[in-house]
Amino acid sequence: MFVGITNIPRNYAWGSTHAIADLLGREPSGGPEAELWLGAHAGSSSLIEDPSLVGGVSDLAEWIATAPELALGDGGDVAGSAAAGADAAPRLPFLLKILAAGRPLSLQAHPTSEQARAGFELENEAGIPVDAGNRNYRDRFHKPELIFALSDTFEALCGFRPLNEVRGIIAELRLLDLATENPQTGAIDSLDNHLEQGLRDTVDWLLRDGRGGDSGEVKWLVERVVALAEYAEFLADGGAAIGYARELATVRALATEYPGDPGIVLALLLNRVSLKRGEVLYLPAGNIHAYLSGLGVELMAASDNVLRGGLTPKHIDIEELLSVLDFTAAEAPYLAPVVETPGVARYRPDVPDFELVHIRADADVAAAAPVPMRQIVLSGPAIAICTAGGFLVAGAASSRPLKRGQAVYVTPDEGTLTFAGTGEVFLATTGA
Questions:
Q1: Residue 290 falls within a domain, yes or no?
Q2: Which of 86, 184, 203, 283 is least crowded, fewest Cβ atoms below 10 Å from its Cβ?
């Protein structure tokens, strides 16, 4: 069964005013459009375009609740019994988004299933309302995610960078400091000294001291690092070579958006990534990250559990964040595809909740041959959105056209899907 779905983009302040509309061929709303949610998450469940197909129900989450065997098959058990306990109701375990960052998002990390379940129950026992601003766990589920870059570049911070690179950045800051008229070596010394105690100690100090008011070492450090980043720009304009120019440019950008925030310095400890179109990052539980700018397809486990770590006026629970973070220093976590056939690439993370299939058929190929066909074998329910061109999508029981800007929910009984046409489609489904 194919069920057309749609939604209204979320108007978070960091969103782009035009990127989602431009991608999908829609009229911009006039305000920021940050995320288009396609799924059954209670925060913004998709709307069913033709309720008559599903007994008059207009909301995807409501339809799944009333007809879980048809809508989910066995796919709801992934995040039901496995993650939340045997008595949990079947649910769509993934959420597909089109994300457009016009400004940097907060530094954040997400819990494992075990951490989410324990934290949710503890906060319930403490009587903290689920929608409270100081609530960490709004559900029992983990929230790993991936991002597929749609813009020419997609800028991000993700995971702790190798310590030798952090030392290189500190050395660069020292050289810049010594080149100023009034060196302040103590500020950089304070960062270096905490790094000797490890990344956990350093993050704890940055967040705890940095949010303590208008005085303290971290406030001084943030001010000095920003000043040195601005001095580096001045030197670069005069022809000087700056070794970590991109990192220092990020400092300047973050300081403009979040002046005085300790996350400005914390960002220097993280991998600074520029994805090219078609590249994918996978962010597992415990990975600290922040999207800085760009347009992408985001796919995640259907959860709203976020532990923030800076670059935000919102609640930060330092102790809980430290318990969730993975402090392993490593390279940026790129996710390579499995290319099943020409034009079909499947991105499979290490969780069963979701996987992303990228389907592409170029028009110049179609002009010299019959209409291209791409086949996808479903392992559960699916959601597809067309971002370019148009296709006829056929399954075991039915078919429907899918044009640029349209999205469709596919029940698992359709089995193998055939996409005939040219353009680009992203399909989210459960893992095999």
A1: no
A2: 86
Q: What are the phi and psi torsion angles at 386 (to 5°)?
A: -95, 125
CA atoms in the 13 A half-sphere facing the CB of 100: 23
Non-local CB neighbours of 318 within 8 Å, separated by 6+ positions: 204, 207, 208
Per-residue CA distances from 69 to 61, 75, 410, 429 (Å): 13, 9, 13, 16
Residues 6+ apart with CB under 8 A from 122: 137
What CATH number has the domain bearing residue 388? 2.60.120.10
So what's the pLDDT on residue 340?
Answer: 87
318 φ/ψ angles, rounded to the nearest 5 degrees: -65, -45
Query: What pLDDT is stored for residue 79 in this prediction?
Result: 46
C-beta of residue 29 within 8 angstroms of C-beta of residue 15: no
User: Which residue among 213, 242, 269 closes a domain?
Assistant: 269
Residue whose token pair is 């870059």: 149
Please write the tens of the pLDDT for every residue from 303-313: 999 999 999 99
Q: Which parts of the chain sit beneath pLDDT 50?
A: 79-82, 86
Q: How far apart are the first and last CA of the chain?
A: 20
Number of structural domains found in the chain: 2
